[in-house]
From TrEMBL:
This is Metallopeptidase family protein. The lineage of its organism: Bacteria, Pseudomonadati, Pseudomonadota, Alphaproteobacteria, Hyphomicrobiales. InterPro entries: Zincin_1 (IPR010428), Zincin_1_sf (IPR038555). CDD domains: MMP_ACEL2062. It comes from the Bacteria. Transmembrane segments: none annotated. It comes from Bradyrhizobium sediminis.
Length: 132
């Protein structure tokens, strides 16, 4: 049984993130229209510098773009909002904690999308609770 166990690839983790996203509350998903979810092994050096991370393992995810509370109708065209999930730091966190990989991915996804909406930690916890 254990001889075939392996960490998910980038594509497998991205598919997992999209499946988890589809199970989030419909109203929450509707507000996320246009947000792109991507998975990469690690954040870029520029992101690490910008976030003042001590290590490439410090960030599990990141929202990049202009959050809804900060948009205006006068905004010029911009890149789409994106949520990045970082596979290797997530796998490292998973190895050190007693949580399922799906729970961790869901938590990071909700947390990063929550930044898009300017939600509080309590709001994000409430959304997570509806998915359990």
């Amino acid at each position: 049984m254990w001889t075939k166990a392996k960490a998910p690839s980038l594509a497998e983790m991205e598919a997992m993130a999209h499946e988890i996203f589809e199970r989030l509350p419909k109203g929450f998903r509707k507000l996320c229209e246009g947000v792109i979810v991507r998975v990469d092994d690690f954040p870029t050096d520029e992101v690490l510098d910008e976030m003042q991370a001590q290590s490439e393992f410090d960030l599990l995810g990141l929202f990049q773009g202009v959050g809804l509370p900060f948009r205006s109708n006068d905004d010029i065209a911009r890149l789409p909002n994106m949520v990045w999930l970082y596979r290797r730091p997530i796998l490292d966190y998973w190895a050190e904690h007693d949580e399922t990989l799906g729970h961790i991915v869901r938590h990071v996804l909700i947390h990063e999308i929550g930044h898009h909406f300017g939600l509080s930690d309590a709001d994000m916890e409430a959304i997570e609770a509806t998915v359990d």
